[in-house]
Amino acid sequence: MFTVLMYIVAFGFLVLSFIKDKKKTFIALKKAWKSFENILPQFLSILIIIGIMLAVLSPEVISGLIGEKSGWWGMLMASLVGSVTLIPGFVAFPLASVLLKNGAGFMQIAVFISTLMMVGIVTIPLEIKYFGKKAAILRNSLAFAFSFIVAIAIGVVLR
User: Fold this and answer.
1) How far, in Å, are 1, 2, 19, 57, 133 from residue 5 at the CA level?
2) How far is 141 from 29, CA to CA, in rounded Å?
3) Is the CB of residue 87 less than 8 Å from the CB of residue 123?
4) Is 104 helix (H, G, I), strand (E, B) or coil?
5) pLDDT at site 73
6) pLDDT of 156
7) Helix (H, G, I), strand (E, B) or coil at 32
8) Degrees (nearest 5) of the Cα angle 146, 114, 77?
9) Between these two residues, 147 and 96, which has the higher pLDDT value?
10) pLDDT tens digit string along 88-146?
11) Strands in 15-137 per DSSP E
12) Residue 22 and residue 29: Cα distance in Å, rounded?
């Protein structure tokens, strides 16, 4: 129901914008469409990867690898995958939802999302170039450690 309400409000503001200034509204809609076109290939590729992953990995396998009972091993595995994966947040959160629905644990998903957003193994050469080796390694190390603290806090809160 909340989603429907948000669509109604958005449509209402779109109509209000159209009434106020048709030209600016069309420019805004064109920009929004361009943004959608830019995001769509990434989004579709991630949806395909998720679909293949869910076809190959059963909920039992997902639960065994990164489920609640996988403990520290599952958290470590999820953190390593999150650290080396480079996907945007708008794709990561739906992926996390799908994994949770298929047996992943909250702490494992929390550490996965945290490392995904904060640790950049793939981007560390660029960080070193701009911030220096010491700063880049320190930032990534602290972010990696903090991801576990966040995951533990989430695990405590959601029990």
Assistant:
1) 6, 5, 21, 36, 49
2) 42
3) no
4) coil
5) 93
6) 92
7) helix
8) 90
9) 147
10) 787 788 888 888 888 889 999 999 999 999 998 888 999 999 999 999 999 999 999 99
11) none
12) 10
What per-residue confidence (pLDDT) applies to 106? Answer: 93
Q: Could you tell me which of 105, 4, 9 has the C-alpha nearest to residue 64?
A: 105
Structure tokens at 49: 């990867």
Reading the block at residue 28, the tokens are 């805004």
Decide: residue 78, CB within 10 A, 0-12 exposed, 13-18 middle, 19+ buried: buried
Per the document, the length of the chain is 159
Q: What is the pLDDT of residue 34?
A: 95
Amino acid at 140: N
The pLDDT of residue 52 is above 90:
no
**Nearest-angstrom CA–CA distance, 3 and 17:** 21
Find the Cα–Cα–Cα–Cα dihedral 142, 144, 150, 153, rounded to 10°.
-100
User: Within 13 Å and on the Cβ side, how many CA atoms surround 136?
Assistant: 14
pLDDT-based confidence at 53, cuts 50/70/90?
Answer: confident
Calpha distance 127→138 (Å, rounded)? 11
Residue 159, classed as helix, strand or coil, is coil
